[in-house]
Amino acid sequence: MNTRIKATNVTLSPAISEYVTKRLDKVSRLVGGDPSVMCDIELSRTTGHHQKGEIFRAEVHIVGAGLDIYASAEHEDLYSAIDDVRDEITREFHAKKGKRMSLIRRSGARMKEMVKGVWPFNRS
Q1: Does any domain span residue 71?
Q2: Alpha-carbon torsion 69, 75, 81, 83, what sign?
Q3: What percent of the chain has pLDDT over 90?
Q4: Which of 17, 54, 68, 71 makes the best surface tag, with the fewest CB within 10 Å?
């Protein structure tokens, strides 16, 4: 998985970069380490004048190998925003995988019914 990290209104220190790659290691294992998959990560500070509230934002967009998954999270701390977006992206990945498996199972069951002659596929 190719990973690009973009920082907006935040300095990207080596500690933050290492934390992001460590946290998103699970996501790369879910994808299977496919080199054609692109993962764009954006870390940003939403405003410069607030002292309280959710001011840090982390976004992850994964594209490739039949995937198009996007997740974002806002939090008061940059590290907790990264953790939240990791949890959300894994949830989105598992939901997409579950939908795909359900579709495969339903279509297989329908084909089996057509072969058995239970489901009328020719309605003329």
Answers
A1: yes
A2: negative
A3: 34
A4: 68
